[in-house]
Amino acid sequence: MGRHDTAPLGPRFVRVLTATGLSNLADGVSKVAVPLVAVRFTDSPLALGGLGVAMTLPWLLLSLPAGALADRLDRRRIMLAANGARALVAGLLAVVLAAGVESIALLYAAALLAGIAEVLYDTSSQSILPQVVRRPDLPRANARLYGVEMVANQFAGPPLGGLLVGVAAALALGAPAALWALAVVALASVRGEFRVARTGPTTTVRADIGEGLRYLARHRVLRTLAAMTGLANLASSMVFAVFVLFAVGPSSPLGLTDATYGILLATTSVGAVLGSLLATRVAATFGRAASLAFGVVTFTVMAGTPAVTTNPWVVGAVFLVSGLGVMVWNVIAVSLRQQVTPDALLGRTNACYRLLAWGLQPVGAFLGGVIGQAFGLRPVFVVAASLSALTALGLLVVTNRAIADAEAAAEAGAQAEPGAAAAVGSDAEATVASREPGEG
């Protein structure tokens, strides 16, 4: 074990970690609170699917501009502005609900605005980490970051959101506003310049976006991972667009209350915490390709389980294992993307990646609502599981050898100019493409 495997990651990382925890706790509360509040206004699967579309549509529309901004502006300042905006939107919505105004349209508007801020925040937050820790420390830093995210977002946040909705809808939305505001304070304490130095002639945002798209398109491993993640997220969005109708209420198949619904969702984070602790060890023991395959299996089983059982204990157990698989996948995929992408291109590459990976979420939410409205809830889960299973095809490309070749190409180009580094990565991908699929 090298010294960097145990060395502290530094005070700046601790502050970023604190801001991440607070921000994700707000996310966890709101992602449960908003659908539970919406169920009080409507029981239509299509209307709830539309709410999911509003939450995720900004990823489809704004990912690329957000990436260009992350490579042009100070990434920390973008994160500060985005969290400030989310605090303002949630706070205003809480005030409106406290005044007795009940409207699904208001939830749609708030979800859309918060989604725009989320795109800006998340794109910059993934791009800032290589400026906070050394690249050899990225897998360890990502594991810790994702561990905190999952504890806050999926373990503490959902049950807290369910409990707060049971007390008052306004309180359930006021709490995230306060948490996002505290995250702003924590992130503001991180000192330093987080704007990437740009060399060469001045370029337009459109040209910057094109450069990021070309880099991802030429990188066979990254573009395949992006497509796999996109398909898995489409399936997941189908499930969770309507899952609240399947789970909550005395007449629902699971028959849960608001509070127990939050607890059920929190089981995912138990597995995710284990995954954050074990991800690097699992990858080292079984290889990254096999570890990604484990993630595919857990995604698929999670999506399909509600179609075959209404036992909340079984659903919770599957969610727990799925959380472990998701975390292992995330640590491997995000660390690889950060390691093989030149820093000057990282914001745009992250954005292009997430356009594929997250841009399909509104499509999934819409499909989930339409299928649920027309055929019932269980067919939604069957279709989602079938789509998730198709992601396994990407493992024919993302082999251990392909991953190693991509890392070697990035290391070879690390001392070159950004353009040269991108060219080295492209040449390596051509080499990988010439091999037979399935080589490990």
TrEMBL record:
Residues 225-440 form the Major facilitator superfamily (MFS) profile domain. It is a multi-pass membrane protein. It is found in: Cell membrane. One of its GO terms (molecular function) is transmembrane transporter activity. Keywords: Cell membrane, Membrane, Transmembrane, Transmembrane helix, Transport. The keyword Transport applies. PANTHER family: INTEGRAL MEMBRANE EFFLUX PROTEIN-RELATED, MAJOR FACILITATOR SUPERFAMILY ASSOCIATED DOMAIN-CONTAINING PROTEIN. Residues 420-440 are annotated as: Disordered. This is MFS transporter. The keyword Transport applies.
